[in-house]
Design brief:
Radius of gyration: 18 Å
Shape: globular
Number of domains: 1
Largest sheet: 8 strands, antiparallel, barrel
Helix content: 25-40%
Strand order of the largest sheet: 1-3-4-5-6-7-8-9
């Protein structure tokens, strides 16, 4: 009887862990994200952070992306796609393609890195809280 009770108590844990395993990277990405922090070679990067901080990045199922710049309300529309066995994310705006390495992607965090001229840029996002209430 004791083993049966333990099994019943552990069953929800096993079922939840199975559900998490079936979530695709696309499902994790396609939501709204808020840019929290930008670093350059491990140091706070105020040039981009001042302009882009709290900007809303919405990745849609049809592989389009919309960025609403918080500081100016400017809206940028582009496309996105996973490449390199889903380890990288490309974002294209007006013919310019940016390639990011996916450092972390889960239900509440997105971290992307980009190397340009030997410098490492790191972008930390969190799930946009506004989406939680809609």
């Amino acid at each position: 009887m004791r083993k049966f009770i333990i099994l019943i108590l552990l069953l929800p844990i096993f079922l939840n862990s199975c559900d998490d395993a079936t979530i695709s990277k696309k499902d994790l990405l396609t939501k709204s994200w808020s840019l929290n922090e930008t670093t350059l070679n491990g140091e706070f990067y105020d040039h981009e952070a001042i302009y882009l901080k709290n900007s809303n990045y919405t990745f849609m199922d049809d592989e389009t992306v919309q960025i609403v710049i918080a500081q100016s309300s400017e809206i940028l529309n582009g496309t996105w796609q996973f490449v390199n066995k889903d380890t990288e994310l490309t974002i294209a705006f007006s013919g310019v393609i940016y390639v990011y390495t996916i450092v972390k992607l889960d239900n509440s965090n997105l971290c992307l890195s980009r190397i340009e001229s030997g410098d490492v840029y790191l972008y930390n996002f969190s799930k946009n809280l506004i989406e939680c209430f809609t």
